[in-house]
Automatic annotation (TrEMBL):
This is Cytochrome P450. PANTHER family: P450, PUTATIVE (EUROFUNG)-RELATED, PULCHERRIMINIC ACID SYNTHASE. InterPro entries: Cyt_P450, Cyt_P450_B, Cyt_P450_CS, Cyt_P450_sf. One of its GO terms (molecular function) is iron ion binding. It holds the Pfam family p450. It comes from the Bacteria. Keywords: Heme, Iron, Metal-binding, Monooxygenase, Oxidoreductase. The keyword Electron transport does not apply. It comes from Herbidospora solisilvae. Belongs to the cytochrome P450 family.
């Protein structure tokens, strides 16, 4: 008997129904089609994410070819620490509120304005998929008119990195985007070197590592990393937080009345429906885990989605329970949290604070602008994705705000 086939259509439709089987009956198993070892228990996944002999070497074949160079996710030691400082600076820091928050508020309000008078919205295509890319392209310093192109880029790059089935069309599309990015960025980087501004592009043009300025190719890798890491993940976090609130009217009412609860609802949504379900690691030596033994030299698939629902870590794990004892919303957006949704250890998500703020602003504004927000009768709530996972659609309706009538 084999463990669940993570490449099957049934698994894509509903991985959750396989997670219990994985944790109980196949806590460490070799997935024959890919040759990787799959682990799913919270203790094992948390350990593989942060402790030796597990390493991030697999990003060398998963990310590097399509990103065009070494990504922060595969770095170690001093190099990793330097790039965390460089890439992290624009995403956090003491002046984050003044520098970044007004832009997020504006980006969210602009999207809501387009549908708030209508009474219905498909939240994925009209809001959630745009908000992160609109925010990131402003921060990076990319032209507003090209946002649809940036969205197409990051989706193609993610698809390439998730292409365990080796689909040749997906592989070709990712490589084509890499070349397109190189040509697109060349004049833009020349311009920023001549006329630097306050954006991330300018900061990367100024940055030095070991006494040398970053090359165009290196800058491209980091931009592509920020787009892919912050894009679909935040899309999923926004939409799942709204979905879970609408499925639980008592929590929606409480959150309407007390907006400080949004972090709690968001954190529990990250546990129940994490934006990242699968992360790869490499076992540099043979290692014995709670669930079994992994041979030296293996690629390891860490199933975050299953770990976040492990009853050994979270009571009643398949239920949306934002007040559960194991959850501390103040810590869940830091490496000290109980979830593995943002990873663990030194590669803990660099954008967790940014994601927290974005979801907070988005949920606040949606609840303010769309009275009586509810799921449409036609809403299906189907998800897709093996590495990053999100709703296909989120059809909502609400009572449009009445405009004051103008009498002449
Ligand atoms: C709810 C939203 C998000 C989730 C669930 C998420 C999840 C993750 C996870 C699981 C990792 C660890 C990968 C690993 O260990 O192999 C990670 C790393 C990372 N994330 Fe996020 N992420 C989110 C939002 C963002 C945002 C908004 C940004 C930036 C704009 C971002 C940038 C990064 C970067 C740069 C890394 C690599 C850190 C390193 O290797 O040191 N993420 N993220």
């Amino acid at each position: 008997m084999n463990g669940p086939d993570i490449l099957s259509a049934a698994y894509d439709d509903d991985p959750y129904s396989h997670y219990e089987t994985m944790r109980n009956d196949f806590p460490v198993y070799r997935h024959e089609p890919t040759g990787m070892y799959v682990i799913s228990r919270h203790a094992d996944v948390a350990r593989a994410l942060k402790d030796p002999p597990f390493t991030n070497e697999c990003y060398a074949w998963q990310a590097e070819p399509v990103m065009g160079g070494r990504t922060i996710t595969q770095m170690d030691g001093l190099e990793h620490a330097s790039y965390r400082r460089l890439l992290g600076a624009p995403l956090r820091g003491p002046d984050f509120r003044r520098r970044v928050v007004p832009g997020i508020e504006q980006a969210s309000a602009e999207l809501i304005e387009k549908f708030q008078d209508r009474g219905d919205v498909e939240l994925m295509s009209e809001f959630a998929t745009w908000l992160p890319i609109n925010i990131m392209s402003t921060l990076i310093g990319l032209p507003e008119a090209d946002r649809p192109r940036f969205q197409r880029w990051y989706l193609a790059l993610i698809a390439h990195m998730s292409n365990l089935a080796n689909d040749p069309d997906v592989a070709a599309a990712g490589v084509a985007v890499r070349a397109e990015m190189t040509a697109y960025l060349r004049p833009l980087l020349q311009d920023r070197r001549a006329r630097p501004g306050g954006d991330i592009l300018s900061a990367l043009c100024r940055a030095e590592f070991e006494g040398a300025r970053l090359t165009d190719a290196q800058i491209q890798v980091h931009l592509a990393t920020l787009m892919t890491a912050g894009g679909d993940t935040t899309v999923s976090a926004i939409s799942n937080t709204i979905k879970n609130l609408l499925l639980h009217p008592e929590h929606l009412r409480a959150t309407m009345a007390d907006r400080s609860l949004i972090d709690r609802m968001h954190a529990e949504s990250l546990r129940l429906n994490p934006p990242v379900h699968l992360i790869l690691r490499y076992a540099a030596e043979e290692v014995r885990l709670d669930g079994g033994v992994i041979p030296a030299g293996s690629t390891v698939g860490c199933v975050l989605g299953a770990a976040n629902r492990d009853p050994a870590r979270f009571s009643d794990p398949d239920v949306f329970a934002p007040y559960r004892d194991e959850l501390d919303p103040g810590r869940e957006f830091t490496p000290a949290g109980s979830l593995v949704a943002f990873g663990q250890g030194r590669h803990f998500c660099l954008g967790a604070g940014m994601a927290r703020t974005t979801v907070n602003i988005a949920v606040n504004q949606l609840l303010d602008a769309l009275p009586d927000l509810r799921l449409a009768d036609t809403a299906e709530l189907r998800e897709t994705g093996m590495f990053t996972r999100r709703l296909k659609k989120l059809e909502l309706c609400f009572t449009p705000k009445a405009h004051p009538t103008v009498t002449v």
